[in-house]
Design brief:
Elements: H1 2-21, H2 28-42, E1 46-47, E2 53-54, H3 56-74, H4 77-104, E3 107-115, H5 120-129, E4 132-142, E5 147-156, H6 162-170, E6 175-180
Antiparallel strand pairs: 1-2, 3-5, 3-6, 4-5
Length: 181
């Protein structure tokens, strides 16, 4: 809301200055908002230690909010209203579609922390017995905590939800922590 309000205010200031001075570019300050918010949004995107990309929706939301504010500020209310409704629909529909796909896929990317007391081969054997095909294994050892961490892809050979897949694999030998990537 603040990004939208600030963008609208900057656009109104730019319009006011253009009308008072009767010279210059009426969209100059708006262009600076677009690039500035792009820079701010890029700062919200990060890759976590588990190779997850976070913040893309936040960055896109900031940028779109600024665009809506610029439309309001210049007086293009129809565009701002239609754009706001479209953003809401896209966010709601895409979230629903993402959940639908995620709950029906047989493949899941996982981050698992194993304790050192159980060999990884025991977990792999357990996963095979429970109907999983494990691939794309990447291991790292955390020296501070005596943990072995793994990024892997698990494919269920039977139809299960991702919640069920996580639950089954969480009970594997040596699993200390498990999370979907």
């Amino acid at each position: 809301m603040l990004v939208c309000l600030g963008s609208a205010l900057i656009m109104m200031i730019n319009q006011f200055v253009y009308q008072i001075v009767d010279n210059g570019d009426p969209v100059r300050m708006g262009a600076q908002v677009v690039s500035g918010i792009g820079f701010l949004g890029a700062g919200t995107i990060m890759v976590t230690g588990r190779n997850q990309v976070k913040g893309i929706t936040t960055a896109a939301g900031l940028w779109t909010s600024a665009a809506l504010g610029l439309a309001i500020g210049i007086g293009f209310y129809e565009g701002a209203i239609i754009g706001g409704i479209a953003v809401f629909i896209v966010m709601a529909v895409m979230h629903t579609i993402d959940n639908f796909i995620q709950n029906r896929t047989k493949v899941i990317e996982l981050y698992i922390e194993f304790n050192n007391h159980s060999p990884i081969s025991s977990f792999l054997q357990y996963a095979r017995q429970k109907g999983f095909d494990i691939s794309n294994l990447q291991f790292s050892k955390e020296n501070d905590e005596n943990l072995i961490c793994a990024l892997l892809t698990a494919k269920s050979l039977t139809k299960r939800s991702q919640v069920d897949m996580l639950d089954v694999l969480a009970h594997g030998p040596g699993v200390g922590f498990i999370d979907k990537v």
